[in-house]
Amino acid sequence: MKIGFIGLGAMGHPMAKRLLDAGHHLLVYNRTAAKADDLVAMGAVLVDTPAAVAREVDIVFSMMFDDATTQETTFGKDGIAAGLSSKAIHVCCSTVSLAQARRLRDGHAERGQSYVSANVLGRPPAAEAGELFVMTAGSRDALDRLEPVLKCFGPHIFRMGDDPIQANLAKLSLNFMIYSTIEQMAEVFALNEKAGTDPRVIFEVMTGSFYNAPVHRNYGKLMVEHDYDYPGAPVTLGLKDVKMFMDAGGDYGVPLPYASVVRDRLLSAVSAGDADRDFVVLLERVRQESGLK
User: Fold this and answer.
1) Residue 278 has what DSSP assignment?
2) pTM surpassing 0.85?
3) Rounded Cα gap, residues 26 and 57, in angstroms
4) Which of 151, 171, 221, 243 is catalytic?
5) Residue 233: is its pLDDT beyond 90?
6) How many CA atoms lie within 13 A of 161 on its CB side?
7) CA distance linking residue 33 with residue 222, whole number of Å
């Protein structure tokens, strides 16, 4: 199958490589073309605009950083919509606000184009291993066509509903659960450290008993090892996600009091100079408030 991939960042690059490894004919676009060099060496074709990618493929994936880059890449002068045929599907994997999710859904609908949201859960190593969890939403026909391809990214495909926005909201919601779990672990580690217990021991008990989900194992390990400087996702990304989750609460009239706690913790990390470090650095803000060095 001819597939396009636009956006070769920390998540997009390994996802694109998974498609190549599965034997698909892949066209790629990235604003920094050099990020595609290894993919081109593997057989991908580098194209000069998103429109040129969309014009040649059956499915085009996009994985951009934020609302603005997603909007420009999709509906800009040489964007995906300018080249997407009526038989092709645009699949957006970006974590975007619900306002942007509506712009994507409605903009493609106005043009008579097929659009699906397919958000993923997992860090870059999971993307490299094909172990992402994929949440999709869109028309049943489009999802049926996509499912074999989406399994390149991970074995678990969850269909959230017919409205693409449903996948976007699920992603924001579950990302918030990651950040709030990190806040819980930070408080637990700091309290026990203050009492003289090594956080590594708490981590061992935690992951050897009830709290052994990937979010506890993976993020907890980074926290007790103070592994903050090779971010799978930086503090700024976490802050963006939590703000969008809170905006979604406003859209639907749902109070989200704990989200304010997590947002403020992320803001304090930015103020402390940790904006570009992994968001598990929240532990240091809790330790600082606890009087720990």
Assistant:
1) B
2) yes
3) 9
4) 171
5) no
6) 8
7) 31
